[in-house]
Amino acid sequence: MANGKILLIGDAAGFFDPITGEGIGIAARQALLLEKYVEPVLKENSGNLVKAMFDYSRASAQIYRRYQIMTSLVLLLRLWPKLTDGVIQVLHSFPALFQKLLSVNMR
What we know:
Elements: E1 2-3, E2 6-7, H1 23-37, H2 39-44, H3 49-77, H4 81-93, H5 95-104
Antiparallel strand pairs: 1-2
């Protein structure tokens, strides 16, 4: 989240994943984006800081979107316990599929 000259990342930016607790993961990814987009402008005291922060915000939103979709799907499942049981059985039978789904929030 960027506003003026303040940048927030991870949980401080409002990201909280109650399923995986991946606030630190997204914060680390956002920190890398800060290094890519904002640090060069600050370090060299040149360039357009507003544009750099906009570019950072746009890239950060793309990361956040993936987490938001997966978390929303998991939270929706809780509304249908029988469907949830079926999904759990399928994931238990296919551990590679389960690992793939988990990796969505770990990239």
